[in-house]
Amino acid sequence: MTVMTTDVVFRPKKIRLVAAPVAAAVAIFFTVLSFGLHGQAGFENAGQVGSGSFQRGDQAAMIGLGILIGLGILTFCRPRVRADEQGVHVRNVVGGYDLPWTVVRAVRFDRNSAWAHLELLDDEQVSIHALQAVDKDYAVDGVRKLRALHSASQEA
Q1: Which SS3 state, helix, strand or coil, does residue 93 take?
Q2: Complete edge-to-edge strand list for the sheet that includes strand 115-120
Q3: Which of 30, 10, 2, 28 is nearest to 128 (CA)?
Q4: How does 82-91 read in b/e, with b if 16+ C-beta sit within 10 Å?
Q5: Residues in CB range of 111: below 8 A, 6 or more apart
Q6: CA distance linking residue 84 with residue 6, whole number of Å
Q7: What is the pLDDT at residue 42?
Q8: How far apart are CA 3 and CA 113, in angstroms?
Q9: CB distance 106 to 123 below 8 Å
Q10: pLDDT (0 to 100) of residue 56
Q11: Model confidence over 82-95: pLDDT tens digits?
Q12: C-alpha–C-alpha distance, residues 28 and 51, integer Å
């Protein structure tokens, strides 16, 4: 008995090339900016003009803020779609879906659409952020493979 594995996994490509350097640049920018925060702040503190000053805690907070913003940018690298004979597992920037092929009516990638969609039997649509229009041939190849898996599951 031969078990055929036809698992496919797709992740967005161009957003990953952009997001990682931008996230690093933001973290570095906030770190450098934090070193410029020292001395008198030039604002009123406790009713005394000119008494406010930046402390090490303010610098650490600025670095932490840069890291948090950088991690927020990296969440755009999170989307992934994985499919096999049984179903499709979609993980988007926020949330995800684990759907059997029996509830999927079609795999669509409409013109002028930013990413592919799964059209479900109950007329709902599930976005697939892992297959983005900016990835061009990679995204088209992904949609074709998902359609092939969907068709194979319908015939079985």
Answers
A1: coil
A2: 104-108, 115-120, 125-132
A3: 10
A4: bbeeebbbbb
A5: none
A6: 6
A7: 64
A8: 36
A9: no
A10: 86
A11: 999 999 999 999 99
A12: 29
- Nearest Cα to 130, choosing from 8, 12, 9, 30? 12
Question: Across the strands, what pairs with 104?
Answer: 120
CA R_g for the chain: 23
Ramachandran angles phi, psi of 130, nearest 5°? -75, -20
CA–CA separation, 151 and 156 (whole Å): 9
pTM for the model:
0.77
- Quote the distance between the C-alpha of residue 16 and its chain's center: 9
Query: What average pLDDT does the segment 52-81 reach?
Result: 92
Kindly write down the DSSP assignment for every residue of 109-125, as one continuous string: --TT-SEEEEEETTS-E
